[in-house]
Amino acid sequence: xxxxxxxxxxxxxxxxxxxxxxxxxxxxxxxxxxxxxxxxxxxxxxxxxxxxxxxxxxxxxxxxxxxxxxxxxxxxxxxxxxxxxxxxxxxxxxxxxxxxxxxxxxxxxxxxxxxxxxxxxxxxxxxxxxxxxxxxxxxxxxxxxxxxxxxxxxxxxxxxxxxxxxxxxxxxxxxxxxxxxxxxxxxxxxxxxxxxxxxxxxxxxxxxxxxxxxxxxxxxxxxxxxxxxxxxxxxxxxxxxxxxxxxxxxxxxxxxxxxxxxxxxxxxxxxxxxxxxxxxxxxxxxxxxxxxxxxxxxxxxxxxxxxxx
Length: 309
Ligand SMILES: NC(=O)C1=CN([C@@H]2O[C@H](COP(=O)(O)OP(=O)(O)OC[C@H]3O[C@@H](n4cnc5c(N)ncnc54)[C@H](O)[C@@H]3O)[C@@H](O)[C@H]2O)C=CC1
Ligand SMILES: O=C([O-])CC(=O)C(=O)O
What we know:
- Keywords: NAD, Oxidoreductase, Tricarboxylic acid cycle.
- This protein is α/β, with parallel strands linked by helices.
- The protein folds into two domains: about 1-145, Rossmann fold; about 145-309, Lactate dehydrogenase/glycoside hydrolase, family 4, C-terminal (L-2-Hydroxyisocaproate Dehydrogenase, Chain A, domain 2, Alpha-Beta Complex), CATH 3.90.110.10.
- The chain has helices at about 10-20, 35-45, 50, 90-110, 120-135, 145-160, 200-210, 215-220, 225-240, 285-305; strands at about 1-5, 25-30, 55-60, 75, 115, 140, 165-170, 170-175, 180, 190, 190-195, 245-255, 260-270, 275-280.
- The strands form four sheets. Strands 3-2-1-4-5-6 form a six-stranded parallel β-sheet, sandwiched between helices. A three-stranded antiparallel β-sheet has the order 7-10-11, with helices on one face. It has a three-stranded antiparallel β-sheet with strand order 12-13-14.
- 1,4-dihydronicotinamide adenine dinucleotide binds near residues 37, 79, 119 and 175.
């Protein structure tokens, strides 16, 4: 198994670190456009092997895609992160060019790869990667829901005094401050609906705080987060390489599912060795479906911006 992570910045390096620690592959390549950074971080990470006890071989590459040849899975994290006060959508102008170029280079050397898109605005970058590579839809997965659902569980755990591991909670829709939809109606604490345990006010607060989870961290840190994003991207990789069939909300092409088509948007999907394998229908109620449609409208208008770049 060979995995490439493009972008050796905060999220890319953390994703690679998680992949190596879990020994998800024999060969891991970290690639960046900035001279030396990928080689340096690959060497630094390799020096943890003796301490942590893993065997994954990690190689760094300064923009040499030949080194990525034959990758089974590729994670794209290259691109600008937002700064406090910005939205993810404001990154489109710079990141679209980066993601398109990277996806095309990857495909040249790894025609069979499954691609996970992390760069923001992620829903539109996933759509762009799908359009520009022409890969089968199941091999392009946008990572957002895995992270947003982990943040949803974090918020629930704080209110309930519960272990996040005992919580089951899902965020669908876009990966944006106003487009994500934490499905509180479906959230449970070891099978008990959280709606039976929390006041209406607490539920509203949890949903609101989950939606701005990324913005909150960006304000605190001065750039966007990387620990949970890196762990979330690695969890998607793990479900693929171990063929786990985990049900992970992810951004995929919709062709009528959830009432939408010609758009990549977050829905619960089963992830295994062929990429995303099927979409699970959560049977949204009218209110949730209206939110999903609104989210789709916002993401579609970002996708339209691609035509003007
Ligand atoms: N989908 C999600 O859930 C999340 C998405 N993100 C997004 O991930 C992206 C990366 O964030 P960070 O790692 O924090 O940023 P960063 O600035 O730390 O790292 C980005 C790296 O990409 C590299 N890069 C730029 N152009 C490149 C190219 N053409 N080829 C190869 N490498 C290139 C840069 O040199 C830099 O090292 C951002 O767009 C951010 O918004 C971040 C967190 C979560
Ligand atoms: O907030 C950001 O810009 C980065 C990101 O997507 C996240 O952490 O959810």
